[in-house]
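Notes from the 1:1 (GR / supervisor)

We went over the backlog. Supervisor wanted to see one worked example end to end before approving the batch request, so GR pasted a single chain during the call. The sequence is below; no edits were made to it. Supervisor asked that the structure be written out right there so they could see what the output format looks like.
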Amino acid sequence: MTRWTRFVIAILIGLAAGLYYGLVLNPVQYVDTAPESLDAAYKADYVLMTAEIYRRDGDFSAALNRLRLLGNTPAETVRAAITFAERAGYGESDLATMNLLFAAFQTPLPPPASP
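Structure output shown during the call:
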């Protein structure tokens, strides 16, 4: 057996052992991970999805409930997502959709209907 053959076999055995250890013996386990721990890119995507739902159905209270999962105040979350999206080069339609949701925070809510 040549030196290169032994080298390749050793590499393959090490790779197989590492994969077995990482995937079977000691896999990563996420416990009680909160949505507010998401990276800024994923938060921006979540805000964009929430804004698209809001644009479609117009339910501001449902959008608020979805955004509260990300921590901070919903308006701050949307503003931060828009800032990230502008830097990351999101499309104009996506930015317009998020700005529509942000504009909903700027308009006063109507008073609750009295019985």
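Supervisor's comment: Residues 1-31 form one domain.
Batch request approved.
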